[in-house]
Amino acid sequence: MSPGGDQFNFLIFMTDPIADYLTRLRNAIKAKHRVVEVPASNLKKEITKILFDKGYILNYKFVEEGVHGTIKIALKYDPINKVNAIKTLKRISTPGLRRYTGYKEMPRVLNGLGIAVLSTSKGVMTDKEARDLKIGGEVLCYVY
Prior knowledge:
single chain; 144 residues; alpha+beta; 3-stranded antiparallel sheet; globular
Protein backbone atom coordinates (compact mmCIF):
# COMPACT_ATOMS: atom_id res chain seq x y z
CA MET A 1 0.00 0.00 0.00
CA SER A 2 1.41 3.36 -0.95
CA PRO A 3 1.37 6.25 1.55
CA GLY A 4 -0.97 8.26 -0.69
CA GLY A 5 -3.65 5.57 -0.81
CA ASP A 6 -4.53 4.08 -4.15
CA GLN A 7 -2.90 6.86 -6.15
CA PHE A 8 0.27 6.15 -8.09
CA ASN A 9 2.83 8.66 -9.24
CA PHE A 10 4.02 7.81 -12.73
CA LEU A 11 6.78 9.54 -14.61
CA ILE A 12 5.91 9.73 -18.27
CA PHE A 13 8.79 10.15 -20.69
CA MET A 14 7.83 11.22 -24.15
CA THR A 15 10.18 10.17 -26.92
CA ASP A 16 8.62 12.48 -29.52
CA PRO A 17 6.89 15.57 -28.08
CA ILE A 18 6.24 17.07 -31.54
CA ALA A 19 4.35 13.93 -32.63
CA ASP A 20 2.34 14.17 -29.39
CA TYR A 21 1.56 17.85 -30.15
CA LEU A 22 0.37 17.01 -33.67
CA THR A 23 -1.67 14.04 -32.41
CA ARG A 24 -3.44 16.18 -29.80
CA LEU A 25 -4.36 18.70 -32.52
CA ARG A 26 -5.51 15.90 -34.86
CA ASN A 27 -7.66 14.29 -32.15
CA ALA A 28 -9.25 17.62 -31.17
CA ILE A 29 -10.10 18.31 -34.82
CA LYS A 30 -11.71 14.87 -35.24
CA ALA A 31 -13.71 15.37 -32.03
CA LYS A 32 -14.79 18.86 -33.25
CA HIS A 33 -13.38 20.56 -30.16
CA ARG A 34 -13.06 24.34 -30.17
CA VAL A 35 -10.00 24.52 -27.88
CA VAL A 36 -7.16 22.09 -27.29
CA GLU A 37 -4.56 22.30 -24.52
CA VAL A 38 -1.02 20.95 -25.04
CA PRO A 39 2.09 20.94 -22.83
CA ALA A 40 4.38 23.82 -23.77
CA SER A 41 7.94 23.88 -25.04
CA ASN A 42 9.81 26.52 -27.01
CA LEU A 43 9.62 24.46 -30.22
CA LYS A 44 5.86 23.88 -29.83
CA LYS A 45 5.37 27.62 -29.19
CA GLU A 46 7.17 28.45 -32.44
CA ILE A 47 5.13 25.88 -34.42
CA THR A 48 1.94 27.33 -32.89
CA LYS A 49 2.95 30.86 -33.95
CA ILE A 50 3.52 29.64 -37.52
CA LEU A 51 0.11 27.89 -37.60
CA PHE A 52 -1.52 31.13 -36.41
CA ASP A 53 0.39 33.35 -38.87
CA LYS A 54 -0.55 31.09 -41.80
CA GLY A 55 -4.24 31.01 -40.78
CA TYR A 56 -4.53 27.37 -39.71
CA ILE A 57 -5.65 28.16 -36.16
CA LEU A 58 -7.95 30.88 -34.83
CA ASN A 59 -5.91 31.96 -31.78
CA TYR A 60 -3.53 30.73 -29.10
CA LYS A 61 -2.50 31.58 -25.56
CA PHE A 62 0.59 30.59 -23.60
CA VAL A 63 -0.33 29.76 -20.00
CA GLU A 64 2.67 29.84 -17.65
CA GLU A 65 1.59 27.39 -14.94
CA GLY A 66 3.69 24.67 -13.37
CA VAL A 67 7.12 23.78 -14.65
CA HIS A 68 6.67 24.27 -18.39
CA GLY A 69 3.16 25.65 -18.78
CA THR A 70 0.62 24.87 -21.48
CA ILE A 71 -0.51 26.20 -24.84
CA LYS A 72 -4.25 26.73 -25.37
CA ILE A 73 -5.08 26.62 -29.06
CA ALA A 74 -8.43 27.76 -30.49
CA LEU A 75 -9.12 25.72 -33.62
CA LYS A 76 -10.43 27.39 -36.75
CA TYR A 77 -13.60 26.07 -38.41
CA ASP A 78 -15.51 27.20 -41.48
CA PRO A 79 -18.79 28.63 -40.07
CA ILE A 80 -20.95 27.30 -42.91
CA ASN A 81 -19.57 23.80 -43.58
CA LYS A 82 -18.10 23.20 -40.07
CA VAL A 83 -14.85 22.03 -41.71
CA ASN A 84 -11.53 22.65 -39.98
CA ALA A 85 -8.85 24.79 -41.62
CA ILE A 86 -6.32 21.99 -41.03
CA LYS A 87 -6.96 18.95 -43.23
CA THR A 88 -3.77 17.02 -42.48
CA LEU A 89 -0.92 17.21 -39.95
CA LYS A 90 1.90 14.86 -40.89
CA ARG A 91 5.11 14.29 -38.89
CA ILE A 92 8.12 13.95 -41.20
CA SER A 93 11.32 13.89 -39.14
CA THR A 94 11.21 11.53 -36.16
CA PRO A 95 13.74 10.85 -33.37
CA GLY A 96 14.54 7.51 -35.04
CA LEU A 97 14.91 8.96 -38.55
CA ARG A 98 15.78 12.62 -38.92
CA ARG A 99 14.90 14.21 -42.28
CA TYR A 100 17.04 17.13 -43.43
CA THR A 101 16.84 19.10 -46.65
CA GLY A 102 18.81 21.77 -48.41
CA TYR A 103 17.10 24.85 -49.79
CA LYS A 104 17.36 23.56 -53.37
CA GLU A 105 15.57 20.29 -52.51
CA MET A 106 12.98 21.97 -50.27
CA PRO A 107 9.66 20.05 -50.40
CA ARG A 108 6.56 21.77 -51.80
CA VAL A 109 3.45 20.66 -49.92
CA LEU A 110 0.44 20.30 -52.23
CA ASN A 111 2.25 22.37 -54.87
CA GLY A 112 2.55 25.32 -52.49
CA LEU A 113 -0.96 25.19 -50.99
CA GLY A 114 0.29 23.65 -47.73
CA ILE A 115 3.34 24.39 -45.61
CA ALA A 116 6.31 22.42 -44.37
CA VAL A 117 7.58 23.50 -40.94
CA LEU A 118 11.37 23.40 -40.65
CA SER A 119 13.84 23.79 -37.83
CA THR A 120 16.80 25.74 -39.20
CA SER A 121 19.88 27.47 -37.84
CA LYS A 122 17.85 30.72 -37.99
CA GLY A 123 14.93 29.27 -36.01
CA VAL A 124 11.66 27.53 -36.83
CA MET A 125 10.11 28.66 -40.13
CA THR A 126 8.09 27.58 -43.14
CA ASP A 127 9.52 26.08 -46.32
CA LYS A 128 8.92 29.31 -48.25
CA GLU A 129 10.79 31.44 -45.71
CA ALA A 130 13.71 28.98 -45.66
CA ARG A 131 13.80 28.92 -49.46
CA ASP A 132 13.88 32.74 -49.57
CA LEU A 133 16.75 32.83 -47.03
CA LYS A 134 18.51 30.01 -48.93
CA ILE A 135 18.94 27.82 -45.85
CA GLY A 136 18.03 24.20 -45.25
CA GLY A 137 17.11 22.37 -42.09
CA GLU A 138 15.17 19.56 -40.45
CA VAL A 139 11.67 19.04 -41.88
CA LEU A 140 9.45 18.74 -38.80
CA CYS A 141 5.98 18.39 -40.32
CA TYR A 142 3.62 19.11 -43.20
CA VAL A 143 0.40 21.06 -42.67
CA TYR A 144 -2.39 21.41 -45.22
